[in-house]
Design goal:
alpha/beta, six-stranded mixed β-sheet
Length: 242
């Protein structure tokens, strides 16, 4: 098992945001996590990477068979975690080209990185600009994905990769991710599921109020959410609880 999360409880500023999350992702599996805004999806991302502002009060996280619960962010990244954030920061003074060169884990993959940049339509002009400064929404998302893919992670965590992206950029991102995820594991967090036009996850989870309330077939769960919204998931949660 590549990633195993056991009974994860996390709080921020004294408020409990995750309330007993369990999840397993195997080698080569892509999982999708659905949930409305404020359900705890991004909090799970922060907990997985070890953000110090998210205090783990119970539970364990295992990656590649190693207990990483107490490990800092940099160690988790070196072990092979890669994260695409929903709202990455602007980095004044750091050019995109410099950042991609710095984070690339395997220098022998230079040709592959160049091909990936071309497929994501990242131009020479964009590479010479400061990271995310003056970028459009689509440029931010494409460049964030390029930075993480250059790291060649074993587990790719994508927090809302289809948020704030127009149709053209979504197609570029979706097709590139589909190629990349053929030989690695991923957790894709999404609210509306547009990215699933291009990706074929093996399992879906739904998060409500800091808990995973159901797991199952991605197409079935997405279709139910599209027809009935997350009210269907809430009814499912209450039925399971009773």
């Amino acid at each position: 098992m590549l990633l195993r999360v056991e009974n994860l409880h996390v709080e921020v500023g004294g408020k409990l945001l995750l309330k007993g999350v369990d999840m397993e992702i195997g080698e080569g599996e892509t999982h999708v996590l659905f949930g409305p805004n404020g359900s705890g999806k991004s909090s799970l991302v922060m907990a997985l990477i070890g953000h110090p502002g998210y205090r783990l009060i119970d539970g364990r996280i295992f990656f590649k068979g190693v207990d990483i619960t107490e490990k800092p962010i940099d160690e988790r990244i070196r072990m092979g975690m890669g994260v695409v954030f929903q709202n990455p920061p602007r980095l004044y003074g750091v050019k995109l080209r410099e950042l991609i060169n710095r984070v690339a884990r395997d220098r022998t993959r230079e040709d592959g990185v160049l091909m990936m940049l071309d497929r994501l339509n990242i131009s020479e002009e964009l590479l010479e600009r400061y990271v995310n400064v003056g970028f459009s929404g689509g440029e931010v998302k494409r460049c964030e994905i390029a930075q993480v893919l250059a790291m060649n992670p074993d587990l790719l965590i994508l927090d809302e990769p289809d948020s704030g992206v127009d149709v053209e950029n979504l197609e570029l991102i979706g097709k590139e991710l589909a190629k990349i995820l053929e030989d690695r594991s991923a957790l894709v967090i999404t609210h509306h599921g547009y990215i699933l036009r291009y990706l074929k996850p093996s399992k879906a989870h739904v998060m409500l109020q800091g808990r995973i309330v159901c797991d199952g077939d991605p197409d079935h769960i997405l279709n139910q959410i599209m027809r009935e919204g997350y009210r269907w998931c809430e009814r499912c949660r209450l039925m399971r609880k009773s």
